[in-house]
Amino acid sequence: xxxxxxxxxxxxxxxxxxxxxxxxxxxxxxxxxxxxxxxxxxxxxxxxxxxxxxxxxxxxxxxxxxxxxxxxxxxxxxxxxxxxxxxxxxxxxxxxxxxxxxxxxxxxxxxxxxxxxxxxxxxxxxxxxxxxxxxxxxxxxxxxxxxxxxxxxxxxxxxxxxxxxxxxxxxxxxxxxxxxxxxxxxxxxxxxxxxxxxxxxxxxxxxxxxxxxxxxxxxxxxxxxxxxxxxxxxxxxxxxxxxxxxxxxxxxxxxxxxxxx
Length: 261
What we know:
Layout: E1 5-7, H1 12-19, E2 24-27, H2 33-38, E3 46-49, E4 59-62, E5 65-69, H3 74-80, H4 85-91, H5 97-100, H6 105-111, H7 118-125, E6 128-131, E7 135-137, H8 138-141, E8 156-162, E9 166-173, E10 180-189, E11 192-198, E12 206-207, H9 209-217, H10 242-260
Parallel strand pairs: 1-3, 2-3
Antiparallel strand pairs: 4-5, 5-8, 6-7, 6-8, 9-10, 10-11, 11-12
C-alpha cells in the first residue's frame, strides 16, 4: 500500500464535496478497493469513506417496493429484506461472514464485478439505482464488465427493488471465492418475466431474452427444454470453458424457475 488521506464525512453533502478533490475515490465496504490498493492497481490520493453516513443505510418497504440504502451491508440485507426473500437469500450467500459484514450493496453495484451477485438481482428485478443526482433504471445502468452509467464522483445512495410475485436466485459457486461461476436471478411480476445472468459473460451481467420469452407463456422449467444460451462472448478460464458456462446458464435458470415456482 502507499500513503493516502482518509476522509470520513458524516453527511452525503460532505461526501460529494470530498469526492470533488483531485484523485479522490469513494470507499464503501472496501471488499474490492482495498485488495486493488494492496496490489497497486489504483492509487487515489484521497479515500472518502461512506461508512459513517447513516442516511445511506437501512431498509424500508412501501407500495410494493423495497428500498435499500447504498451503504447497507450484505449481512443487513440478508437479515432485513424479508419482504423480498429471494434477495435476502442472495445476500446471505455472498462470500463469507467477514465479507458480508463489510461489503455493501452500493459498493457492489458501483464496482459491477462480472461475477458479483447483486447486479443480477438488480437487473432481474428491474430495480432503480438511486444516486446523489438522479435515478437510473437497471437496464440502463449496467454497461459492460466493471462499467456502469455512474459519472465521476457520483454515489449510489439507494436501490429500489419492485417486489415481484415470484423470484429466485441460483448460483453455481467458484468454491474458493464464492463468486458466481454462473448465477441466475429470475422474477415474475407485473412487468413480466425477467432472467438476469451473472458470472458468465465477458460483457458482464445480461438478460437472457430467449428464456424470458419462453417463460412468459409458461413459467416452468419445462418451457426451457431445448433452449440453450450462446457460448459466444462467454468467459473462458481455468474454472470453466465458454461452452461450460453457457450450459450452466440453462441449468441454473431451470433451477431458479423451479425454486421460484
